[in-house]
């Protein structure tokens, strides 16, 4: 068996409400990614939201404007540098994600052997992309910082940056001007543009998540349902799901929590039971349909 030094992930979680779900997300990550470190950024208006959760909180946390989350990235990176946290990869996560299968840490280590940046749906976007249309209205602001013709785009959740890239961002000679531009801009979703283009401008190799565990499972909509999660588990596809409804009794959320509380054999039984219930439901619907047409 090949031996290697396991790389360490730092998950930067942006949270803003519902302390109980924040606690459950921390437990979820600790279970599925036990070798990783977790830090929080409180982007809401409840100062005590993250107190006494056993996880470090970025001290400069503040309420963020929807559509511009870039300051959360930079403030967290600067703070991690100040406290000299030991990590190899910085990954941002929103509060409506959950892991449902182990193996993400190994996946990241394998994928990042030949890259310093990885994002979901990394591409040169088409003209219909909402964030891109907003960006083009303010494009002159960004020309001093990186190439804008063409420019790159990603889906925000799950951006992976090596510590070397983070270091280069913090040492970027135009950082102060860049942060001022980020504060002043009205570009919606600028965090889906700024980091991938800076990585490219600074000469770092970029890549996209593989489709089967990237844009199919980490997406804007629709929210996950138990049926889709069960299918992924049966086929052993993916590790991280976004979005999961931020409601305590959401069936997909409860399904993942139940998986966490069971051992491997019990998990298989839960998946098989769910698949059996689906087949029975399908058979009953067919029976009703045939009976109605008789």
Question: How does this model look, in words?
Answer:
By secondary structure, the protein is of the alpha/beta class. The protein contains eleven helices and nine strands. It has helices at 19-32, 70-82, 104-111, 130-136, 139-142, 163-170, 175-184, 194-201, 226-235, 251-260, 264-293; strands spanning 9-15, 37-42, 56-57, 89-94, 98-99, 117-123, 153-162, 206-208, 240-241. The strands form two sheets. The protein has a seven-stranded mixed beta sheet with strand order 3-2-1-4-7-6-8, sandwiched between helices. Strands 5-9 form a two-stranded antiparallel sheet. Helix 9 packs across helix 11. The longest helix is centred in the C-terminal third of the chain and has 30 residues, at 264-293. It is globular, with a radius of gyration of 21 Å. The model is unreliable at 1-5 (pLDDT under 50).
List keywords for this structure.
294 residues, alpha/beta, 7-stranded mixed sheet, two-stranded antiparallel ribbon, 41% helix, 15% strand, disordered N terminus
Helix and strand succession?
EHEEHEEHEHHEHHHEHEHH
| Main sheet: strands, sense, barrel | 7 strands, mixed
Low-confidence stretches: 1-5
Adjacency order of strands in the biggest sheet: 3-2-1-4-7-6-8
Q: What's the alpha carbon Rg, rounded to whole Å?
A: 21 Å
Helix content: 40-55%
For the record, give the distance between the C-alpha atoms at the N and C termini, rounded to a whole number. 62 Å
β-strand percent reads 15-25%
Extended strand count: 9
What is the quaternary state of this protein?
Answer: single chain
Mean pLDDT: 92
Number of helices: 11
Helix/strand-derived category reads alpha/beta
Looking at the structure, what is the overall shape? globular
């Amino acid at each position: 068996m090949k031996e290697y030094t396991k790389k360490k992930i730092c998950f930067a979680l942006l949270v803003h409400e519902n302390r109980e779900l924040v606690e459950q997300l921390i437990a979820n990550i600790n279970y599925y990614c036990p070798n990783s470190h977790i830090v929080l950024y409180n982007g809401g208006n409840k100062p005590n939201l993250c107190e006494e959760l056993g996880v470090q909180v970025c001290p400069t946390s503040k309420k963020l404007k929807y559509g511009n989350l870039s300051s959360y990235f930079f403030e967290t990176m600067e703070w991690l540098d100040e406290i000299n946290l030991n990590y190899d990869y910085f990954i941002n996560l929103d509060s409506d994600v959950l892991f449902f299968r182990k193996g993400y840490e190994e996946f990241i280590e394998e994928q990042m052997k030949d890259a310093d940046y990885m994002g979901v749906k990394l591409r040169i976007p088409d003209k219909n992309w909402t964030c891109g249309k907003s960006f083009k209205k303010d494009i002159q602001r960004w020309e001093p910082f990186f190439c804008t013709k063409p420019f790159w785009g990603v889906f925000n959740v799950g951006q992976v940056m090596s510590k070397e890239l983070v270091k280069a961002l913090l040492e970027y000679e135009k950082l102060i001007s860049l942060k001022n531009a980020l504060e002043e801009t009205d570009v919606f979703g600028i965090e889906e543009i700024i980091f991938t283009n800076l990585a490219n401008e600074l000469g770092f190799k970029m890549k996209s998540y593989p489709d089967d565990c990237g844009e199919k499972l980490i997406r804007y909509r629709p929210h996950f349902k138990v049926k889709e999660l069960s299918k992924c588990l049966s086929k052993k596809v993916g590790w991280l799901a976004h979005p999961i409804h931020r409601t305590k009794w959401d069936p997909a959320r409860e399904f993942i929590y139940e998986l966490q509380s069971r051992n491997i054999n019990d998990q298989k039984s839960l998946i098989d039971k769910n698949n059996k219930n689906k087949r029975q439901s399908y058979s009953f619907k067919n029976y009703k349909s045939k009976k109605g047409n008789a």
